[in-house]
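ligand=flavin mononucleotide
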Amino acid sequence: MALAKIVYATMTGNTEGISEILEKAFEDQGLEVDREEADDVDSDFFEDADICVVATYTYDDGELPFDFEDFHDDLEDEDLSGKVFGVAGTGDSELYPDYFCFAADKFEAAFKETGAKKGSDTVKIENEADDDDAKKLQRFAKELVAAAQG
Ligand SMILES: Cc1cc2nc3c(=O)[nH]c(=O)nc-3n(C[C@H](O)[C@H](O)[C@H](O)COP(=O)(O)O)c2cc1C
């Protein structure tokens, strides 16, 4: 059975919420899922994964969450060739229009250094996921699974 691993950081719960939606979306497709908080894992977390997912909010005018800083820097040095990656971000485009979901973009750039294949476009969500966002996340998970199979 294919293994999807999700690592997330959250302050007020929005990103944890999208990580839960993704976990269910992968399970519904018959995958095994391991979902962990950034604080609890190192950058070798994805070593045994088929699908690697980062879910992150953005902080402080375009910055990574503090919990993700080391993980992000070390991720670039991992060899994840043969795996599929996807990034989902939450942010606030009204309060931070010039930096909306920048941390998600930073993770996409880091993944590109690892040799992993991008399985779907990065999903950017306005604060807490609503029903439309949940559908977007389900599509995102489906595309990742299809990319991993293909
Ligand atoms: C101090 C502060 C700075 C923030 N900076 C940004 C930012 O630069 N870009 C952005 O898109 N969102 C920014 N946000 C919004 C959060 O990323 C957004 O509310 C997110 O959904 C929070 O996720 P969480 O509930 O998982 O903690 C900021 C929020 C706070 C409190």
